[in-house]
Every structure is written in structure tokens, then in C-alpha cells.
Amino acid sequence: MPENSPNILVVDDEANIRRTMAICLKAEGYQLQEAASVREALAEADRQYFDVAFVDIRLGTQSGMDLIPGLLERNPGIRIVMITAYATVQSAVEAVKLGAYDYLPKPFEPAEVALMAKRAAQARRESARAAELTRSDRGMDLESASPAVQKALALARQAAASDATILIRGETGTGKGVLARAIHAWSGRRERPFGVVSCPAIPTELLESELFGHTQGSFTGAHREQLGRVAQAAGGTLFLDEIGDLPPPLQPKILRFIQDHEYERLGDAVTRKADVRVLAATHVDLKAAVAAGRFREDLYYRLNVIEIDLPPLRERREDIVPMARRLLSRFAAENHRDIQGFTSESEAVLLAHDWPGNVRELSNAMERAAILTQGALVSWERPLAGRAVGGPAPDAAADLTLEALEERHIRRVLVVNKPLEESARILGIDVATLWRKRKKYGLLGEAAGR
Fold first, then answer.
1. Mean predicted confidence (pLDDT) in 138-153
2. Which CATH superfamily does the domain covering 138-311 fall into?
3. Which fold has domain 7-127?
């Protein structure tokens, strides 16, 4: 979908008002859907993503105010403009408190509608861009002195302008997700949604519904119709993280979607289309997976139109200290700490560590250091391996294998019963990796309810 053609929903129980606004907005090049009630509006928001909604404050016997939370839940970031002939300061303030963007009183001129739509759409674009920059900047960055990383970034920028499928390869924590967001931000789809699906983090029986959506009653617990990530990312980008763990039954459906942009919801025979660009990432050797019969060869070649390799941090040591300084400065500011940097001994410790968790591990270490360091400089004298950065030396556990130590530590974090995302952040790994390790160590029952 062109970036200058936002999708707008008009909700008004008066057909003449809807018709007038439709004529005005379509003349400005906007795509538009109409709804006459709260129920119709929510149904439309379930079917597709809207950038802006014009909502009448009085919808027959219902209030347009009641629609605000539902629209925001279904279309995060949507800009809602309340329209009414009963304009008062009190109702305007109430609408804004509920999450409305602005207020347009009746009667209005077509030029006023066009101007409000332009302002709201621009606000939505700026918000989306700021959110992308914030997410891309959190914990990792793409600044690098490494020739290998610079080559990868140059290829990513060049490929971003196309709609080609891109496969990003690299170890866990190398920044594959950050690079995927950057590709989206560099592309012509940057003002449309960016969706993420972590293939191993979602149970196999729910992954198809998560991707393509389902109809009410299509399976036990499907109490209402639900959009999938594909529909929610319409016009934008869908990032399939750790696609090497995609279950075999879903592989032909993903292949079909990449080839033809067609899919069906669970419980629905209607074939739908969605203009969505697919990016994928994996730490798995997909060629080996194809040879072993675990991954479809045709899907591999569809994904691998452009391949970008991100090297592990141990192979780009020139980046370790500069990146650590940037991360430490950021986390110190966030935690209101006055930390100026590292001692020379600490920098030597940073360079001596192999960083098996890559950039994510470094980010986690710098956040801990920003919180726990006493004084203006981070001061370490011993190697980082085997201890929490910024914390005390480990107790005696030399008789345990590395695998046993890992299982013990993961179990301890999970017992605290934090959300899975928070546990992964504390461990310095992503959610997909934590899911695999829980399965490996038989910990799927830990922290019940997650």
C-alpha cells in the first residue's frame, strides 16, 4: 500500500454524513471504509488495519466514546477523531483522555475534513517512525567498524528498497531482529505495520491461527473472529523470527503466501490476499535442515532470495568496547546513574570475553553494570565468564557441567514467575531461544500460566 494513502474508517449512523466524508476523503486519495454502528466498526477493525478513524460521538442509542478502547486495542496507534454536532469542552476532554487524537464539530466543510485527515495521518506516520526508531535503538545498535557488518548493512539498505524476501542468518543475539526492523524502516513500507512472529515461541497448534487468523468457533477457545499477523501487517512487513523452527505442516502454507500472497483463516474457506513483505531470520543451517528432511527445499529458496549474514560479536572485536560504551551510557541515563565509562582493566576484560550471547549478552551486561557499579567507572579485574557482570564472583560449582549450570540458572529465573519476555531479558537471550531451552531441559511446566 502506498505510504501516502492511509486507510481511514468513518463511523456515523447518518448515511448522508458517511457519503459526504467518503467523497471528500477519496478525492484526497485516501482508502476508506464506512460503518454505521459500534458493532460494524469493530468488525471492520478486526478485518483490516486503519490509520485514522472519524467517529461520531452519537451512534443511535450508543456512544462513540465506547468505541475508542476497542479501536485502539484492535489497531494500536490509530488516530481517532471524534465528530459531533454536540461539541462541548467537557466531551472533547473526555474523548482525549480515552485516547482520541482530536475533535471535529459539525457542521464542517470538506476542507476541514481533509485537513484533519492529513494532520491525523501525519501524526500516525510520525508515531510509527518514532516507535520503530525506539525499538531498533533499544539494547542493540547497528553502528559498526567491522567490514563484515558494514557489508551486511550496505546489502540490507540496497535490498530494503525492493519487496524481495530476505533471509537474515546469524547466531542468537547478533541483532537479526534489529536489522529486520531497520530494513522495514528503510523501505517504502516504513509507515505501515511491522509484525513479528517468533516461530518457536508459539505452540505448534496455535501458530497457524497466530499467522493467518481464525473464525469464531473454528477450535476450542475461539470465542470470536480474530485477525492473524498477516492481516495486521497489511501493506507492511512481517518478520518470521527463527523460521528454521517452523513446523513442517505450516511450511507449504508459508510458501504459498510468499509466492501468491494468498491464505485462508482457520475455519474459513474464503481465500484472502494480503500485500505483505516477508523477512525471515534463523540461527539454524537451513541447507542442512533441507538435507535432513526437516525443511522444504522450495521454501528455503523462496526465503533465500537475498541472504544477509551477521557475524558473532567475537568475530567483530573492534566493536565490543565502543558498543559497550554506548550501551553503558544509555542504561546509566535511564537509571539516573552518573557513570563515565570503564577502567582500562575493564576494557581488557570486555575484549577477553567471547560473548556467546553476542550483542544481546553485551547489552544485558551493560544494563547490570549501570545498575550495580559503585563509582564513576566500571571496574572489573577478573574474567566475565561464569559470573554476572557487575555482581559478585560465583560460588563453588566447578563440579557442574556448563549445561547443568545453564539449566540451574534458567530454572531459578523462571521460578520467580516473571513474564517470559522479562525472563529472556534477564538471561540475555531472546524469547525463542528461551522457549527452546525450556523444552530442552524439560522446564515447560515452570512458571505455570506462561
1. 81
2. P-loop containing nucleotide triphosphate hydrolases (3.40.50.300)
3. Rossmann fold (3.40.50)
Query: How far is Cα 250 from Cα 228, in angstroms, rounded to an integer?
Result: 14
Pick the CATH number of 314-378 from 2.40.30.30, 1.10.8.60, 3.40.190.150, 3.30.1490.110: 1.10.8.60
Q: Give start-end residues of each CATH 3.40.50.300 domain in the chain.
A: 138-311
Three-state DSSP class for residue 189? coil
Q: Where in the chain is the domain with CATH 1.10.8.60?
A: 314-378
Q: Are strands 272-273 and 262-263 parallel, antiparallel or unpaired?
A: antiparallel
- CB under 8 Å, gap of 24 or more: what pairs does 98-106 form? 98/65, 98/68, 98/69, 99/68, 99/69, 99/72, 100/55, 100/68, 101/52, 104/54, 106/17
Strand ranges for 172-259 from DSSP E = 194-198, 237-241
Place of cell 581488557: 348
**Residue 80 pLDDT > 50, yes or no?**
yes
Length of the chain equals 450
Which three-class secondary structure state does DSSP give residue 185? helix
CA distances for 134 relative to 77, 178, 187, 337, 444, angstroms: 15, 11, 17, 21, 32
More confident residue, 10 or 388: 10
State how far Cα 130 lies from the chain centre.
Answer: 13
Hey, is 350 helix, strand or coil? helix
Amino acid of residue 192: R
Q: How far apart are CA 156 and CA 161, in angstroms?
A: 9
Residue pair 245/436 in contact by the 8 Å Cβ criterion: yes
Give the residue-averaged pLDDT of 40-69: 88
pLDDT band at 246 (very low <50, low <70, confident <90, very high): very high
**Per-residue pLDDT at 135 exceeds 70:** no
Three-state SS at 241: strand
Cis amide linkage into residue 107, ω under 30° from 0: yes
Dist. CA 385–CA 336, nearest whole Å: 28
In the chain, ranges of CATH 3.40.50.2300 domains? 7-127
Tens of pLDDT, residues 146-200: 999 999 999 999 999 999 999 999 998 899 999 999 999 999 998 888 988 988 8
pLDDT in tens, 257-301: 999 999 998 888 889 999 999 999 999 999 999 999 999 999 999
Half-sphere exposure of 91 (CA within 13 A, CB side): 18
